[in-house]
Amino acid sequence: MEIRERILQAATRLMAEKGYDGTSLAAVATSVGIKKPSLLYHFDSKPRLRKAVLEQLLSRWNDVLPRLLMASAQTGLNKFDAVMQELLSFFADDPDRARLLLREMLDRPGEIEQALRAFGRPWVEVVSEYIRKGQESGQILKSVDPEAYILHVSSLALATVSSVHGTQGLLDNGGELSPLERALGEVARIARTSLFDAGYLAHRQKELGDLD
Amino acid sequence: MEIRERILQAATRLMAEKGYDGTSLAAVATSVGIKKPSLLYHFDSKPRLRKAVLEQLLSRWNDVLPRLLMASAQTGLNKFDAVMQELLSFFADDPDRARLLLREMLDRPGEIEQALRAFGRPWVEVVSEYIRKGQESGQILKSVDPEAYILHVSSLALATVSSVHGTQGLLDNGGELSPLERALGEVARIARTSLFDAGYLAHRQKELGDLD
DNA sequence: CCTACCGATCGGTAGG
DNA sequence: CCTACCGATCGGTAGG
Questions:
Q1: What is the pTM of this model?
Q2: Which H or E run contains A15?
Q3: How many angstroms is C1' of C1 away from CA of A81?
Q4: Which of A117, A167, A192, A208 is the best residue to mutate to test the B interface, defined by the most B CB atoms within 10 Å of its own CB?
Q5: Does nucleic acid strand D have an atom less than 7 angstroms from the CB of B47?
């Protein structure tokens, strides 16, 4: 693997775990087996390293988009479940993504807003268009505010994946599912129930028994 | 106001905004008009200052508990709305609470879990008992996992209040509500809809028209 | 409550 | 890719 990628990978992990201010360039360098001045040859300042880490993370989101467009071929509840699955998997596949984005939202709300707007806008527009159509046909609750709904489901997914390690002790965890599986299942349920008309949901209930 | 309280207040604000590692003792001291060694007389190390900040924040939660017990006199949906109102107000009244707790969950998942267990356990048990009773009487959906549900609604409230500043630009904001009001209204709606049986909700719908 | 000071660590540079 | 080094800032102490 290229040294540049290895630096980015180590920086992502450390910044997700300790935060930007809690991560020294020396610590990143050591964890890939080089010294700090060598790292500064590849990324010529700490802010630029942060920027590169964030850009790589967000660019991965673009890999998800093609699968989302495929999901667009489906309709109603199936389409919704496919889209939710992609959103949750994106963070569950690598919890560092959730923790790093959450930290950036806290550290630099202005800058991260711009980045999320650029990378998230197309997705938000597709999904809210879908919600509006569902509201017209009666499948989706009229009381849902599309943009706010998407934002909150995303926030919930972010916070859930980030905090499962820290708060799983509050749960009894007596069941057979892992804490993360249990948490994501509940997130999916909350998202589905608060979006669709209950009559429509009950009508389609058999199709998603394994998701409850 | 006592100097000790003024230090705690300044430390809370700075640590919520910049994080623990991003907040120097000198910065806290300066913002209350003293020098660093004077601050270290009142809190004899930085970790102890952090601990005091967190304890004061959590102790405020105890102020909420009496009102929650009063709300217990009510039943069904009214009780739920009262409890949600207290939870959302706790964070909305001072967004630093949400941001600081979220940062602590990211920085020290183990320690914060202990603290939340001590301060949140009684509340979690009361609410989950309420949910279980509602499930028996059919008002609350059988598919709800009580502990997981509470944890996720709390996470959603935390993340929502913390991130409203950073992400409000993703919303059109064409309405008459402030971004925070709009966000909290959607959180309350998501929480209510994903908890109660739809038939029960429809039956009681008139009573909460102003919450939609 | 202060000034003066400590060793350690920070991001970054010089130079090879 | 390295060693050696820079000024600035960190948390904390001595002493009054």
A1: 0.92
A2: helix A3-18
A3: 63
A4: A167
A5: yes
Closest CA in chain B for residue A16: B106
User: Which chain B residues are closer than 8 Å to A160 by Cβ?
Assistant: 152, 155
Q: How many residues does chain B have?
A: 212
Are the C-beta atoms of A199 and B191 separated by less than 8 Å? no
Give how far B155 is from chain A: nearest CA, Å. Answer: 6
| Alpha-carbon gap, residue A103 to A192, rounded angstroms | 27
Q: Are B141 and B135 in contact (CB under 8 A)?
A: yes
Contact criterion met (CB below 8 Å) for A41 and A20: no
Place A56 in a pLDDT band, splitting at 50, 70 and 90.
very high
Distance CA A147, CA B3 (A): 45
Calculate the alpha carbon distances from A126 to A60, A65, A191 in Å. 18, 11, 17
Is pLDDT at A79 greater than 60 in this prediction? yes
- HSE toward the beta carbon, residue B209, CA cutoff 13 A: 2
Closest by CA to B12, choosing from B116, B87, B94, is B94
Tens digit of each residue's pLDDT (9 = 90 or more) over A107-135: 999 899 888 888 888 888 888 999 999 99
- Find the nucleotide nearest A22 (Cα to C1′): C10
Read off the pLDDT of residues A160-172 as tens digits, 9 standing for 90 and up: 999 876 555 555 5
Candidate from B144, B148, B171 with C-beta closest to A182: B148
Q: Are B112 and A135 in contact (CB under 8 A)?
A: no
Chain C nucleotides with an atom closer than 7 Å to a protein C-beta: 1-4, 9-15
CB B77 within 8 A of CB B196: yes
Q: What is the mean pLDDT of chain A?
A: 89
Q: Give the whole-angstrom CA distance, residue B202 versus residue B191.
A: 15
- Give residue-wise pLDDT tens across range B61-83: 989 888 887 887 788 888 898 89
Q: Identify the pLDDT of residue A212.
A: 42
Share of chain A above pLDDT 70, in %: 91
Under 8 Å between Cβ of A101 and A154: no
Average pLDDT, chain B: 89
